[in-house]
Amino acid sequence: MTTSQLKRASHLILLCCLCQLTAGVKVLVSPQEEAVAHLGSTVTLSCQVQDSANEEELQWSRNNALINLQEGNRLSHSHLCVQNLTRDDHQVKFTCQLRRNTSVSADVKMSVLFPPVLSGEENVTVEETTEASLSCSVWANPQVVVSWLRDGAAVDLLKEGYTLYQDSREAKLIITKPYRNKHQGTYTCITNSAVFGQMTKLIHVTVRDKQMSFPLGPVIAGCVVVLCTALLAVLSRWSQISKCWK
Predict the structure, then answer these.
(1) What pTM does this model have?
(2) Class of 27-113 in CATH
(3) CATH assignment of 121-208?
(4) Who has greater pLDDT, 48 or 237?
């Protein structure tokens, strides 16, 4: 048997031994599948090995990036403390796995409960007939229901020249052609949530007359024409003009 064949045989034997050692071994996490907690709180994730005759070394990862653990927090049982939860922790996947065989693993996804950042007032000035966009942040978990008011009355999207745009992070009320008598006023962006209640933001909209833009291009072109005409006139009479200087 050649050297390469011996290496292949030894690799196969090692692989078979690992499969036998790992057969039936499980990794369980608690809480399972999803951990739900409020913004700013602390969550402890637990992991343990089952159906193994020997102690197993465990490791944790956050979105596939390994996390450093203390030595006493690795064998057969392990705990991971996630402190001061932020919005960046929402939907992060934590994985606990055997160090010697990472295919034996279990995941838990973090679900952070947080309200939208919505408060205060804003002043917006727009020109008549020039499209304007009013926006408010609605990123929250769980998602919120958004509504718009103008001077305390519900905005009629169909009759009054509005378009509504919304994704998971932002809600926009677009005024396609603003007019002072129809669109000037105080708009209220309202979010409603079963967890966080109602939140609002005020946007004061002032509609001004459309400003006439200065026709800079035509003015420059006209000046160039006048200068060229004057220069040609001077050149055509240069002989007569030059006599005056003699």
Answers:
(1) 0.72
(2) mainly beta
(3) 2.60.40.10
(4) 48
